[in-house]
Structures are given as C-alpha cells and as structure tokens.
Amino acid sequence: MQDVNKIVNGKDLFLKPEYQESLANKKEFEGSMGSVDQGKVTEVAEWTKSWDYREKNLAREAITVNPAKACQPLGAVMVSLGFEDTMPYVHGSHGCVAYFRSYFTRHFKEPTPCVSDSMTEDAAVFGGLVNMKDGLKNTAALYKPQMIAVSTTCMAEVIGDDLYAFSIAAKEEDGGEFLPEEFPITYAHTPSFTGSHITGYDNMMHGIMSQLTEGVEEKKNEKINIIPGFETYIGSIRSVKAIVESFGAEYTMLGDHSDQWDMPAGDYSMFAGGTPIADAKDCRNSKATISLQKYSTVKTMKMVNKKWKQAGSSSNPIGLKGTDEFVMKLAELTGNEVPEKLKIERGRLVDAMQDSYPYMHGKKFAIWGDPDFLIGMVSFLLEMGAEPTHVLCNNPARGWEAEMRALLDTSPAAADCHVWAGKDLWHMRSLMFTEPVDFMIGNSYGKELMRDTGVPLIYIGFPIFDRHHLHRYSISGYDGALNLLTWITNKVLDQLDEDTKGIASTDFFFDLIR
Amino acid sequence: MGPESLEAKQKAAVEEVLKAYPAKAAKNRAKHLGVGSPEDESQKTCGNVRSNKKTVPGVMSQRGCAYAGSKGVVWGPVKDMVHISHGPIGCGQYSRAGRRNYYIGTTGVDTFVTMNFSSDFQEKDIVFGGDKKLDKCLHEIDELFPLNNGITVQSECPIGLIGDDINATSKMYSKKTGHTIVPVNCEGFRGVSQSLGHHIANDTIRDYVFEGNAPILGDPIEATEYDVAIIGDYNIGGDAWSSRILLEEMGLRVTAQWSGDATLKEMVQTQKVKLNLLHCYRSMNYISRHMEKEYGIPWVEYNFFGPSQTIKSLRKIAAFFDESIQEKCEEVIKKYQPMIDAVTEKYRPRLEGKQVMLFVGGLRPRHVIGAYEDLGMEVIGTGYEFAHDDDYKRTKDEIFRSTVIYDDVNEYELEAFVKKLQPDLVASGIKEKYVFQKMGLPYRQMHSWDYSGPYHGYDGFAIFAADMDLAINSPVWGHSKAPWDKEGEV
Fold first, then answer.
1. Do A64 and B109 touch (CB under 8 A)?
2. Which of A173, A347, B97, B239, CA to CA, is 20 to 30 A from A288?
3. Catalytic site includes residue B68
4. Chain A residues within 8 A of B158 when measuring between CB atoms
C-alpha cells in the first residue's frame, strides 16, 4: 500500500511484496513459456545469441523485425513545416496523421500541426475528391495558412487519386471564398510502399520547389539555396546558417523547420519561422543549390541540375572533414576567403579532438540510421580513430553501400567493418551478440538492444523519445562535431567509471582525473 | 461563478467556436458540440451531442484508425503472441511501444509486446499481392521466435484495397502447423475512428480464440466459484495490476486480464469465469456481450479511478458473490480508507477548486471525472475521440456540473474552448500537450499517464493525486513572464 509520505509510481510500487506476490500468482493462469517452463525460455534466449541464430536471422526474406525506418508521408510533413505558414495536408485517412503528429511530437517535445481529409470506406470506393474539396476549404478557413502542402497516404495511392486535378476542382468549387486562385496548393505523391521517410522528403521538396517556381520570371541572382534534408537536429540547421552567414553569402534555406519545432514558451501560434514563400518561389534563380543530404534529395537535385541548370551539389557537414568540404564549397561559390571565425572554430574543434582522442581510439562501434547521417557519423568516427564495426542502414538509397564501403576503405581502422544495407534492428541484435562492440550509436529503438546485449547506447539519431533536448543541439558544422565528440567521449568515460566502481576490487582504476 | 453563469459561458463558447467554419462544416460540427447538465433529464446524450460519425475533412482531428484500435489497443498488448503490422512500414513504426502496456516476460523470446513486426510492403507486393509474403512471414516468425503462442495479422490500408486474402493464407498456415493465426481486417480506412478496429478485433477473438479452440500451453485451470476476468484494462503503466490486487484481496481470483499483460491462454479460459469485469466499455463491450450470450457469463461495468468510484465499484462487484466476499470487500475498503484520507488531506487543499478540461478516448472522459472531484477539482469540459451514443449517455451520470461536451474535438476547437473557459489544467494526449504547455497551462497526458501511473485502484489514486499536484503547482509555469514584460502582456 502507498505511504502518503512517499508515494511511488509504477517503478517502485510493483516491487512492493504484495505486488510481487500478485504477479507471481498470475503466472498460474498465463501459459506463456516463461510461466510454464522458464528453462526453455533461457535455452531459447541463449540460442538467439548464437551464430546459428544469426545465420537464420540474416536469411530472413519477408518479415521485418524492429525496423529503423518510417514511411514517405512522414518526410513530406517535415518538408511542409519548413515553409512559412504552411499546413501539411495528408490526403488519406486520419489515422496516419495522428501517427505522424505523435511521432514528431514525441521526438521534438513540440506541437506538430498537420491535417488529413479523413477518407473512409466510401472514399476508398469513389475516390477522395469530395474529401479534398471539403478538406482544403476547411483547412484554409480554420488555420489560415499561406500554403497547403498535400501529400498522400498509401490508401490514396492505391486507389490512384489525382492530386493536381483535385486541388483545381477544390478551388473551382470554393469559388475563391477560402481558396483564391493564386493560393498555393503544392502536392506530392508519397506512397508508403516505396522507399522510406527520406523518399517522402525528397518527393515533397521536389513538389514544392517545382510547383512554386512554375512561371516565375527567370532572373538569376547570387543566392545559394541550402536544403537541409530530413534534419532532426534543430541546432544543425542553425549551425549551417551561421556558417553560410559568416561568408556573408545571400542564401535561402529551403525547408527550414528549425523555428517550427523550437517555439519559445509564452504563447502558442500554430506556425513559426520557415522559408518565406516569396523566397521559395525565387529559388530557381539562385546560382547554386547545396543539399546537405544527398540521399534524401535525389529527385530534387536532379531537377536542380537538369531543369534549372544550377550548380547543384551535395555536402554533408557532419564531422571535421564533412564540415571542411562544406566550408570549401562555400568559399568556392562565394569567391570569399574562409572567414577568421570559422578558422578559429575549426582550430578549437581539432584541439578538442586532440585532447580526447585516447578514449575513442580503437573503440568498436555499431551504428544505424539514415544514409546521409551514417556517412557523416562514420566519417567522424574514423577521424577520431574509432573502429566502426557494424554500420546498418534499413533504408539505403542506390549508391549508398558503395559510398560507405569506399569511405571505410580510407581507414585501416575499419578493415573489419560490416556494412548492412536493408537490415533491421533484430539483425543488429544478432550481430552484436556474435561480433560484439563497445558502444552503439543510434535512436531510442536501441534501448532494447542496450538492455539485451548490455552494450551502452549513445543517443544520436531519430527518433529520440526517452532523452530530452538532444535535438536542440547541433551535430553539423565544427560546433556540431564538438557536440558529437563531447557526447561520445563522456559516454566512454561514464562506462569506464561504471566498469571500475567495484569497491576494493576494480576501483584502483576509478581515477579522479582522466 | 455560479452554475448559471458557467453554463452561459459554455454555451456562448460553443456558438463562438462554430463561427470560424464554412457553412457545411459548421452544420456538421454543431451536432457534436453541446453543454451537458446533470439536472437536465431531457438530454438524450450528455449535451445532446451526436457521435461516431465521419470526421469533417481538414480540421486536424485527434482520431486514430481501425488498425490503431485493433493492433494498438486490443491485440497489441497480448504478450505471448506476435502481432504483424501487415502492409507498409509506417503504421507499425509509429505505434511501436507507445501505449505503455506493461507486461512481464522475456521480450523477443516468449513475449513480444514492445517489438515491431512488419511485412514492410513494397510496390511489387501492392501490384502482385502480398499473400505469399505473408505466408513467408509466418514461417520466419515461427522459426526465429519458436516460443510464440500465436500470430495475429493486423491489416493496414492497402490489404483490403488490393484484394489480398489474409484469411485464406492464415487458415492454410494454421491448418498446416496447428498454430493459432488470427487474421484481422482492421484496415485504417474502415469506419470513422479507432472504434471500429476495437469491434473488428473483438470479433476475431470470438472467431479464433473461442470458436477456434486455440491450443494452450500448460494445464487448463480448474474453475472456482470466485473466478473473474478483468476486461478492457490495457495495463497502461500497470493499471490492471493495481486493480487485480484489490479483487484478490476481497477473495476473488482474477484468471484473466484483457488485454494488458494478457496471454492467449488467459483469454481462452475466460469462458470459465463467473463474472466479467468491464472497465473500458467502448473497446470490449462486444466480447463481453458475446460471452454473456454464448457462455452465460454476466458482465458488470466498473470504475477504479478515484476512491468514490472505486468503493462503489468494489461493492457492485461483491454483490455478485456470497457474503464472505461482501465482508472481505468491506474489509478492503476499510483497510485502504486511512491511506486515502491521508492522500486527500494532503493534496485536496492544494488542488481545491481547480478547473479541468479533458479530452481522451475510451472510458476516461467520464471515468476520471470522479477522481478529479475527489480531490476537489472541477471538470468543466470533456469529450471523446471515438465514443458512441451509449458512452455519452453514460457520461450524463458522471458529470457534477454544467460541462461543455465536445465529440471528436479538433485542434482549433480545443484551443478555442481552452482560451475561452480558462481551465487550470488540461488533460489530453501527446499531440495536444505542447500546445497548451506553451500557453503556460499545466497539462497531463491522460492516455499514457505522462509516463507515470498506474492510476487505477487505491494505490493508483495516490499517484494520480501526486501527479496532478506536480502539474498544477510546479514553479515552472510562473517563469513564462519575464521581468521586463509589462502587465497583461503574457
């Protein structure tokens, strides 16, 4: 029973003897193997750690277990929220939108506006035109966005609704009351059964950029477009902006959701920040576009290069070398010298790397995440002399595996590193039991791996639900690399203390100074 | 503020809220908004609101889908079975381990609740059909997770649209292996909310657990006169555990939990109980009615939120049994009373008169009202994501004063109601949480207990009281106003 002077929640409540007894008694009715024959559970649990199990596990062809990827419209919603006063609108059933909103909200601890047009059985049969006509009108009336960006769920894709025709029809029927002729309704088809959330990012970015710039007068300027990609670190977007600004360059961040998911307390307004629509319309006239995530912007960058004839390229400013390349690219594009401020920042980062290197050097890492994130992170690990051992990407894009392999080949430290393209986190579990590592780097889904394998998890990735505020920091630029260095080094040191805190047994190595 | 003026204010708020809508949407939404009154006998449902209808497109509803109702709510917590999210990758990922359905077991070996099994449909599966892939999924699961006691197939939207026959595939596999395979046609576009998913899932329990004579591990239980099942408790944060302990103390034997910390065997053997205790009426009334009809098992609704309702419910349950149980029931009530008095004495002065607005799903929009009132707090607004008329009828008996009632409330409406009615606490879900916190309003998530709980039973009430105090009386809400802000600016 609770003690009013020390009320405890589930963590301690269920450890009280009366609950332990109740839970033990419950087993009598259960019939799960653990309640019938615990020995069998132990036996199978041990088998899951074996090479035999690993081989069977890796031979899986159909079932995905504990994936590290999500579906297209999630990425589309992120793109939409990066434009000023833009409402992400998902054509399909509303359950999907409830999921997207929850998913982002749990990560960012911020509201995530997004509507759907609540298609149901009749729409599945007759198509979603009526839903879209009503939905666009209602969204415009209630939330007064400057733009509505429409993506699709797999339901709408399977029945094959035509977004362009529907949005024209919606405007016609509305007659200009809520949806005037010039009101931008941008759209992209984002089928969940193709690619992953980064494909959806690409499709929506492509949709918005191509549709907004249609008919815009061609008048080249000196601006540089930057596309952040499926960036879940708010601080990274700010770091990148600071770097570009230090060159005095004029630029447009296309899809800047950094303010939307980082609103100050005090009052609530649905939209904050974002790329101004006017700037987005003009982005075709910029002289160059840099994508910070190559694999999240394949289609978009193709358009930039082929159709817009811009100097389009990608740059991955995670880690020292990645940031160096980005900085050099900006120097080249602007014709300016690298600013003093960046030189000092770089110097400080290198100084910090040289201070801390013994702790990362030679440590084995398992890491998973999106393709561009992995390229940047593995590059940084190699810069520190760490040994990436398992690099796993559940949603690899074409060319990623070869690029990752080539990156690993630049370092003798990664000679034994495995690249796992298209594998999931249940595969990772087998890999970590059979070829163990010292640390893992990944998202909150690594938590169960940490529990099962005992390998410490360094929380870097998306989504992160159970550690707070990490997404506010940067992992890009020199300052971002310093954050990575700090998080990883201190986790190594935490673990060192953990391993050496045995009183009168291991604590000779429990050094005060490290 | 007298009750009349509160009611007048609430009615004015409803009218005002409707003004922002285009005509067609306004007409629709007007039927879903109302003001409920405990005295007004003429109201058919609380506030005379209409419910369980299609959501108005484009309004930012908080509703989920049939898949969420089946996989996320009813089936997902059954711990010794593997639940496949059948279709594209997203649904299973977004719903993974989000509901805090606590359980005991070795995850990945004999229990699987927090894991995500997905058939990860690709374009070719859409074009050529996914039945072969499903069959392969079933084989692979049985090879790699040999201690699973069954597999459910939770259909995502495309399954029903492309004409896959998961029923035939499951049946064939089941016949071949003798394993329990449950195909569930809970495609997200079916129905208007999660609610239809609950119903579909209930029906599959009837068809595959009861009528399918699902095989069980270990010996069958021997029935006693005092066997009961907890139905419609998903053990969120351990709710069912802090409930069963009270039932056990009063001499009953809880042989099954549905479906938090549940096993297939518990469900199968529920056919033998003497009484079904139904907490979440909305999601599990179907199977309770079925068991009543088919096996003659009566069912009784109960409410374990807050001491007033808990006491009432304990007595209601005891009345189904003999005097020995009724005596023990009184002993239980007596035993916990001093603790509850101490909790109320401690927290009531800190919470007295604070006004609350709720928006949740299932049973909570009415069931938690009593718990707030036990602490002297006043619920002035409530509504359900996916309720039906019978829920709103039941709500009439739970409200204490004029209460604004909003069915399937959307982001715009809830924000407008909160701004007009100025509650001291908003209690709803994750999607709404940070909207209100940004306004400086204390907030508690009432789906997940904000990562605390349990809230059921006596022990749960103590946590509930402490959590509400934590939210309302935290110093953090006072920081929004900066020293340089002028009066009235923030």
1. no
2. A347
3. yes
4. 154-155, 158, 193
Query: Letter for the amino acid at B196?
Result: L
> Which pair of structure tokens corresponds to residue A426?
């249940």
B130 phi/psi in degrees, rounded to 5 = -115, 15
ipTM of the complex: 0.98
* pLDDT of the residue at B486: 80
Task: Check whether the bond before B454 is cis (ω within 30° of 0).
Answer: yes
Q: How many CB atoms lie within 10 A of CB A137?
A: 23
Query: Residue B4 pLDDT > 80, yes or no?
Result: no
A457: helix, coil or strand?
strand
**Residue B488 pLDDT grade (very low, low, confident, very high; cuts 50, 70, 90):** low
Residue B55 has pLDDT above 50, yes or no: yes
Q: Examine the pLDDT at B490 and tell me if it is beyond 50.
A: no
**Mean confidence (pLDDT) of chain B:** 96
Residue whose tokens read 């074996």: A50
B20 belongs to the catalytic site = no
Q: Is B29 among the catalytic positions?
A: no
- Which two tokens mark A343? 């030189």
What are the distances in angstroms from CA A289 to CA A301, A327, A350? 8, 14, 29
**Closest partner CB to A101 (pick from B123, B136, B431):** B431
Interface of B with A in 370-409 (CB under 8 A): none
CB B362 within 8 Å of CB B303:
no
Residue A151 has phi, psi (to 5 degrees) of -125, 180
Give the closest of B89, B256, B465 to A67, CB-based: B89
Q: pLDDT band at residue B489, thresholds of 50, 70 and 90?
A: low
pTM greater than 0.95 (yes/no): yes
Q: State whether A95 and B64 contact (CB < 8 Å).
A: yes
Per the residue annotation, which of A79, A90, A154, A417 is the catalytic one? A154
Residue range A421-474, pLDDT digits in tens: 999 999 999 999 999 999 999 999 999 999 999 999 999 999 999 999 999 999
Query: B110: which residues sit within 8 A by CB, 6+ positions away?
Result: A32, A33, A34, A41, A44, B80, B147, B148
Q: Could you tell me which chain A residue has the CA closest to the CA of B339?
A: A4
Measured distance CA(B110)–CA(A414) in Å, rounded: 37
Does A128 have pLDDT greater than 60? yes
Q: Which of A186, A182, A118, A184 is nearest to A156 (CA)?
A: A118
B188 Cβ under 8 Å from any chain A Cβ? yes
Contacts of B473 (CB under 8 A, 6+ apart): B350
Angle between helices A319-334 and A340-360 (to 10 degrees): 160
